[in-house]
Amino acid sequence: MSGATYDLLIKGGHVLDPGQGLDGALDIAVAGGKIARVAADIPAEDAARVLEIRGAGRHVVPGLIDAHAHVANGAITEGVGMGNCDADAIGVHSGVTTILDCGSVGVANLGVFPAWILPKAKTRVITMVNAGSYAHTMPGPADVNSLDDINRDALQRAAEHNPGLISGVKLRIAGPIFSSIGEDIITKAKAAASDLGVPLMVHIGDPGANNDAAAAQRRGELTRFLLRTFEPGDILTHLCTPNSGRVLDPTGKPYPEVAEARANGVVLDSALGRGNFGIEVARRQADLGLYPDTISSDLTAFGQTFHSLLECMAKFMSIGYTLADVVKATTASAAALLGLQDEIGAIAVGRDADLSIIDVVEGDFTFTDTTGQAFRGGYGLVPVRTVKAGEEFSPGWGTHPWGWLPALA
Ligand SMILES: [Zn+2]
């Protein structure tokens, strides 16, 4: 092996990188953890190790990026707040090479990332801090229960002491406080993000307001206010939520602020999760041309037992999005959301060799949205092998008792 030019050669694969318009039979050579060459028919003898790709449904795509998940595993006590995933379990062992942790912890306990999570994760983990100082870790109705829960001074000190750690500020519009001072909280969270020079990501969808007409209407007003507050690069998450605060008005039309925000460079993320994916909403939005920029999982410890990022992608394929659409939404577009479009999300010479080998399986599958409504789809996606900076990882068993594929209809 000493004479080989490359450490690894992925040979004979259907390479699909929609962000760059790659879609065809290409070989990928890796050296020193970087992509060294992308071309047809690279000789096998040039590489110390060869992975040969065979089979009609097998594809090689850029390492998948989950732009909304929760991996503050060990920072949050089970039974108190929201259980978090092990980063590698939903990362490199699930076809995913980069994860954005979306505000699982606040400034008070963000230190768990540099101390414990980042040093041991093989997956690239990027962190957003919750606007609420204690996030989901304190018992209470919401992350933010008063304006004082957002501590701009502490956030600035944390950013100063931990350069590069905070890539964004996350706010959840959920909880009774938003009915009264929702605008003030949004404005303060935006100011906190601006202090740090990072984007603001905001969760819409408040199930607690669903059964109260006045509260539900307020959530709609707040979503409109939020979209007017957003600047380019800010992120709305849970685009397809069926809950109060969704982007469609009661007659099913998008608020005018949605198109304005998108034209202004605001990112629309879908983050399906346990509560925020309505199939009727997603279909209606697709009919209207209101497509999500990114597809993300919103995985938590509980969510890990019933879905995966690949299954979220398959759910969008059931609506009519193509494989290329859903791969772009989890690679090039997700990299852009992170501001890392020049570093990750593409199979390009000189970049880290982050690659996902996946099987696209045709079948008659059944899915369930977060309201409990079942729907059918024609594709399931299965991770086969993941390469992160040249290092290979095998997938785990999968999210379901039977493995990775969605349930059969
Ligand atoms: Zn989340």
Description:
The protein has 409 residues and is an alpha/beta fold. The protein folds into 2 domains: 6-62 and 348-408, Urease, subunit C, domain 1; 64-337, Metal-dependent hydrolases (TIM Barrel, Alpha-Beta Barrel), CATH 3.20.20. 24% of the residues lie in helices and 27% in strands. It is built from 10 helices and 16 strands. The strands form 2 sheets. Strands 1, 2, 3, 4, 5, 13, 14, 15 and 16 form a 9-stranded mixed beta sheet that branches. It has a 7-stranded parallel beta sheet with strand order 6-7-8-9-10-11-12. The radius of gyration is 21 Å and the shape is globular. Bound molecules: zinc ion.
What is the overall pLDDT average?
95
| Distinct ligand kinds | zinc ion
Q: State the helical fraction.
A: 10-25%
The CATH superfamily title of the largest domain? Metal-dependent hydrolases
Strand content: 25-35%
SSE topology sketch:
Blueprint: E1 6-17, E2 22-31, E3 34-39, E4 47-52, E5 58-62, E6 64-69, H1 87-90, E7 96-102, H2 112-120, E8 124-130, H3 152-161, E9 166-172, H4 177-196, E10 200-203, H5 213-229, E11 235-237, H6 256-263, E12 267-269, H7 279-287, H8 309-319, H9 323-328, H10 332-337, E13 355-368, E14 374-388, E15 391-393, E16 407-408
Parallel strand pairs: 1-4, 1-5, 6-7, 7-8, 8-9, 9-10, 10-11, 11-12
Antiparallel strand pairs: 1-2, 2-3, 5-13, 13-14, 13-16, 14-15
Bound molecules: zinc ion.
